[in-house]
Design a protein that fits this description.
The structure is a single chain. The protein is mostly helical. It has one domain (2-257). It has helices spanning 2-23, 26-50, 62-96, 100-103, 109-115, 120-140, 146-172, 174-177, 181-191, 203-208, 215-226, 232-257, and strands at 56-57, 60-61. It starts with a helix and ends in an 8-residue tail after the last helix.
């Protein structure tokens, strides 16, 4: 419990420091927020055009799709708020030997490199995703009770950890290959699969996207809870896979540190 309070306090201090820094560049903050909102607007236009030609795709109607994209927006933006910038910085720290300053600190090194920086514009943009979800549920006439809301939020956290595990793993490969910028580009390509219903993919690809590259778990599972497209077994599977991928990051981080060559070596 003492260690938990220590880590929570440290997280708060790091987030506070990032907020102070962010407010020094207010225009950049507002431009980033506007850009993200425009991206959400373009997704809604895309849905309108697509469903103007057909009533449903793979069993998902227009408002199901709005909820799915809203869920994807929430997960993606919260992931970018807490983890994306940190994972991108990690590659340079490993390659240039700057990781020394992290390793000498009396705290878990993976925790520090993963949560050092916070992007507040992404946190605010995630609220647009919640608005999309609420509007879609209203159009479908679906009411969400307390248990469903809690399960949805738990799956959102689980999905964020899956995203984190994938990008963190790609970043950590820098320990072995020296430069992983091309691998990091793979993250964006894989992330596109999570924006669409899993039912539209061929069987073999769908299996791969639910196991080795679990992109369908990221958005489809939380959204499925809200629109009754996810069975109980799927919920347990999603949490188990999320726990496995997170545990894998701990293992690969410790393995990578054994290959690390510091600036002084």
């Amino acid at each position: 419990m003492k260690n938990l309070k220590r880590y929570l306090k440290l997280t708060w201090l790091m987030m506070k420091n990032c907020l102070i820094r962010e407010m020094q560049f207010k225009v950049n903050f507002l431009v980033r927020l506007l850009t993200e909102c425009l991206w959400v607007f373009m997704q809604l236009v895309y849905i309108q055009v697509m469903y103007g030609q057909t009533p449903e795709i793979g069993g998902w109607n227009k408002w199901d799709m709005v909820i799915l994209l809203g869920t994807n927006n929430v997960i993606t933006q919260l992931f970018e708020a807490f983890f994306y910038d940190n994972c991108m910085r990690l590659t340079d720290q490993i390659r240039q030997g700057d990781l020394d300053f992290t390793l000498i600190k009396p705290i878990n090194s993976q925790f520090l490199v993963s949560l050092r920086y916070t992007d507040y514009s992404s946190i605010l943009t995630s609220l647009v995703g919640f608005a999309m979800i609420g509007f879609g549920l209203h159009q479908l006439g679906i009411g969400v009770g307390g248990p469903e809301a809690l399960l949805f939020l738990a799956l959102v956290v689980n999905s964020i950890l899956i995203y984190y595990a994938m990008l963190f793993t790609l970043s950590v490969w820098t320990f072995w290959i020296g430069r992983s910028s091309n691998l990091l580009e793979l993250y964006w390509q894989l992330g596109q699969f999570s924006r669409y219903p899993g039912d539209i993919y061929p069987w073999l690809l769908r299996r791969a996207l639910m196991t080795v590259i679990p992109m369908l778990i990221v958005s489809n599972f939380p959204a499925g809870v809200l629109i009754n497209k996810l069975e109980g077994g799927g919920i347990f599977y999603g949490f188990a896979l999320g726990a496995f991928f997170f545990a894998f990051t701990v293992w690969i981080w410790q393995s990578g540190l054994k290959k690390y060559r510091s600036a002084s070596s």
